[in-house]
Amino acid sequence: MIPKGAKKMGKSKNHLVYQFKVSLSEIEPTIWRRIQVPANYSFWDLHVAIQDAMGWLDYHLHAFRFRPKHKRKPIEIGIPDDEWADDVILPGWEIPIRDHLTEPGQAIAYEYDFGDGWHHEILFEAILLKEKGAKFPKCVGGERACPPEDCGSTAGYYRLLEILQDPTHPEYEEYNDWLKGHAK
Q1: What global pTM score does this model have?
Q2: pLDDT digits over 17-69, tens only?
Q3: CA-based nearest residue to 111, from 21, 42, 24, 8
Q4: How far is Cα 183 from Cα 13, in angstroms, rounded to an integer?
Q5: How many Cβ atoms from other residues are within 10 Å of residue 74's Cβ?
């Protein structure tokens, strides 16, 4: 669905902005961000916007996964790796998001750091008109800080929180020092 008035601007999608809600799975209460990106972004550009909004430092591999409408086989977009020849991973920098995300309400999966396995749900919320002078990508909402890089997945994050809540814990100082290296 194209917003009212978009047709008056011509067929160019350069004036359109996509809005997404990015939610980190398996953690309660939910850690989420609402971001806006130009419709002409690639999946690589979307990945970078998510990294910035969530506070990740882009140290690890990532992949977007979804099943296109009327297709049986799911698509994986990220960084191709010849080591895993069984999996076809399309290069994110070559695939525009508008080729696969066409209607608000679509949801796709995004995994960051295959070792820790941070799974996100990305909900395509809206197509908006770009306001004159607006800069993108833009984070327009969200709640809670993201877990630090390499904390050991959801279980490691919960363990980290537990340790930090108890200054008498034997690992409290060690984890506090480790976290200082993650502060932006």
Answers
A1: 0.86
A2: 999 999 999 999 999 999 999 999 999 999 999 999 999 989 899 999 998 87
A3: 24
A4: 37
A5: 11
